[in-house]
Design brief:
By secondary structure, this protein is of the alpha/beta class. It has helices at residues 30-42, 77-81, 92-102, 124-130, 140-150, 173-192; strands at 10-14, 20-24, 47-56, 66-74, 87-88, 107-113, 135-137, 153-163, 169-170. Helix 1 packs parallel to helix 5 (140-150) and helix 3 packs across helix 6 (173-192). The chain is globular and about 45 Å long. The two termini are 25 Å apart. 39% of the residues are buried.
Length: 195
């Protein structure tokens, strides 16, 4: 552990392939993520993979399933304040590496990034679905926007921890632990091939 500034823990060391690897919490939401992403870039980070959670909107997603993000619909204030287009994309090569590391066991598709975790206005989830989102989360649009602005490569892979419709269901603790291990393995494998 090398960092706990602002209560956001960070670890750095040597990965299994002998290359340096840093794992850094960004906190929740675009504002916190923007600070951490900018500071990581200033410290020399050039490839970033967001690992985190999302709420499933598409009825084909299951609790514990992993989702590689192919696009983020910018519905959050931070990415829009940074000048994000309505939809922002991750690095295509890094995204492909995440999909390859998932070896067919992951879903892929667009997410919507928002500022609210609970208490969204009635009908919001249906509007997100109509816009093409498979899931909702809070940081991907900010990550992709900042990566584009700063010349950093970024991608994201998420665990479906909640199913939002027709009523909210939450993942069980043991299934979450299993998915977290799988998530870390896929992210590390994608970064190992980063030459």
């Amino acid at each position: 552990m090398f960092n706990h500034t602002r209560g956001l823990w960070g670890y750095t060391g040597t990965a299994a392939d002998g290359q340096p690897l840093t794992i850094q919490s960004t906190g929740m939401g675009g504002p916190s993520a923007a600070i951490v992403i900018s500071e990581l870039h200033d410290l020399g980070a050039r490839t970033l993979v967001r690992t985190g959670t999302c709420g499933g909107l598409d009825d084909r997603l299951e609790l514990g399933q992993l989702l590689v993000v192919t696009e983020a619909i910018a519905q959050d204030g931070t990415s829009r304040a940074l000048g994000a287009a309505p939809k922002v994309s991750p690095d295509p090569e890094l995204t492909r590496r995440l999909l390859d590391a998932g070896d067919g066991a992951v879903a892929a598709g667009p997410v919507v990034s928002t500022d609210l975790f609970y208490d969204t206005p009635a009908g919001t989830e249906h509007r997100w679905i109509q816009a093409g989102a498979l899931a909702v989360e809070m940081e991907a649009a900010t990550l992709f926007t900042l990566a584009s602005r700063r010349g950093t490569r970024a991608a994201a892979v998420l665990i479906v921890t909640d199913i939002l419709l027709p009523q909210r269901r939450r993942i069980e603790a043991e299934r979450l632990r299993q998915a977290e291990l799988q998530l870390g393995e896929i992210a590390a494998a994608a970064l190992r091939s980063d030459g």
